[in-house]
Amino acid sequence: MSLGWTPIADEAERAARLRHPEKHGMPRPETRRVLTVANQKGGVGKTTSTVNLAGALAMHGLRVLVIDLDPQGNASTALGVEHRTGTSSVYEVMLGEIGLDEAAVESTASPDLLCVPATIDLAGAEIELVSMVARESRLSQALNDEALARLDVDYVLIDCPPSLGLLTVNALVAASEVLIPIQCEYYALEGLGQLLSNIDLVRSHLNTALHVSTILLTMYDGRTKLADQVTSEVRQHFGPTVLRTVIPRSVKVSEAPGYSQTVLAYDPGSRGAMSYVDAAREIAEHGATGAYRPAGTDGR
């Protein structure tokens, strides 16, 4: 009698995929995908998700560019990319002083994983952008087809600061998709209404292609009833836009940035690493078609 598939067998199969990614490639998108990872609420796993999803995609044969748009530069740190003052960065790119491909550097994680770093200079960019022509479109202009073609990337992931200022607006104008990480904790949906309203405004006035394509649940603790309640509430609210994969609360995921690594490099066999690989595979296989829109914003 067959015992059938078990959770242990499932985990072993996922570990094999992680250790031998060349045998388990992810589909290349028909057209380049640009995703903005946004949530103005801090501490939801936004930067962690950006770098680890990027790392998982790159590990499985795709070429990925991460744009660090947070003045703290945490994504740059996690990808092992220099971001001291004086480094060519997204700040100079947005001011039009250098091209995107001039600022992009290889991550220590993979030659297929590039990063445009953020330096502390970016902290003053919000003020400088106010007086500029097309201030909301500076990043979009830099992410032109010619620059991205030279970099030959399949995915662009933009890591936003935890705010809804001009930097985040630039990220929304530059992308066609929004990925929103939501933590499985109290007040998970707090503030999301304002983010969704801003996305609607950007779509109406600046970027008609923009839509929320992906919701990722993070910091899931299966020992608590709360985590299941939040998961159920988010899935009920956002429907199929929510990935099936949830990212568990993990010490390894938290430790990895301290070593300038993604969790996939730091501890490839950990549950956190395998979960990010599963989430990246869902994103790659799901494509850019899924879209959440609040009732009444698209004529339905």
Structure described in brief:
Helix content is 41%, strand content 15%. It is of the alpha/beta class. An 8-stranded mixed sheet has the order 3-4-2-5-1-6-7-8, sandwiched between helices.
| SSE run | HEHEHHHEEHHHEHEHEHEHHH
Low-confidence stretches: 1-9, 294-300
**Mean of residue pLDDT values:** 87
Helix content: 40-55%
* Total domain count: 1
Strand content: 15-25%
Count of helical stretches: 14
Side-by-side strand order of the widest sheet = 3-4-2-5-1-6-7-8
- Known CATH architecture: 3-Layer(aba) Sandwich
Biggest pleated sheet:
8 strands, mixed
Rg on CA atoms, Å = 19 Å
In CATH, what is the class? Alpha Beta
Structural class: alpha/beta
CATH superfamily: P-loop containing nucleotide triphosphate hydrolases
The shape is globular
Note down, in words, how this protein is organized.
This protein has helices spanning 7-19, 46-59, 74-78, 90-95, 100-103, 125-130, 138-142, 145-151, 166-174, 192-205, 225-238, 251-255, 263-266, 271-286; strands at 33-37, 64-68, 105-106, 113-116, 155-159, 177-183, 211-220, 242-248. By secondary structure, the protein is α/β, with parallel strands linked by helices. It has a single domain (30-285), classed as Rossmann fold (3-Layer(aba) Sandwich), CATH 3.40.50.300. The chain has an 8-stranded mixed sheet, sandwiched between helices. A hairpin with a 6-residue loop joins strand 3 and strand 4 (113-116). Helix 1 packs across helix 14 and helix 2 packs across helix 14 (271-286). The longest helix has 16 residues, at 271-286.
